[in-house]
Amino acid sequence: xxxxxxxxxxxxxxxxxxxxxxxxxxxxxxxxxxxxxxxxxxxxxxxxxxxxxxxxxxxxxxxxxxxxxxxxxxxxxxxxxxxxxxxxxxxxxxxxxxxxxxxxxxxxxxxxxxxxxxxxxxxxxxxxxxxxxxxxxxxxxxxxxxxxxxxxxxxxxxxxxxxxxxxxxxxxxxxxxxxxxxxxxxxxxxxx
Length: 192
Description:
Elements: E1 3-6, E2 13-17, E3 23-26, E4 31-37, E5 40-47, E6 51-57, E7 67-73, E8 77-84, E9 93-99, E10 102-116, E11 122-133, E12 141-155, E13 160-172, E14 178-191
């Protein structure tokens, strides 16, 4: 069962779980959330609840306890760390549910991350893999900066498709509320 440890007067709490024990913690709309993840397939989905929910699956049930899901923070700011030992290619898949209006900062060494139905500032960084950000229409962002060292930037929402070495796409807009920054050293960025 997930453990919850409170830190008294500061209001910070720690919640710990694994693939057999998903975690849940209060997270209000417009909160800032920093996510550091081990290589995996990660799906970040916006919901109407003011709650952070994190669950994961692996192909082999016996590896589920090797993944640690750790959230530290308050309802206004939190840090989620997804760590664990080598899973022997157990195909780790992580689902993170956040309020629809959440500011995200995400870092992962390798894998793929999909962000869907989340309004807010986004800073997404991978060394190798794929970033997919859905719902990126021009009315949402005041600035967009997407770049790859080697790979493709496909921003269909903005009519851009560039591939090769050191490809980037930058757009400043008069309207929009949020900032979007996405970077992959080797791989692909899809803004849809």
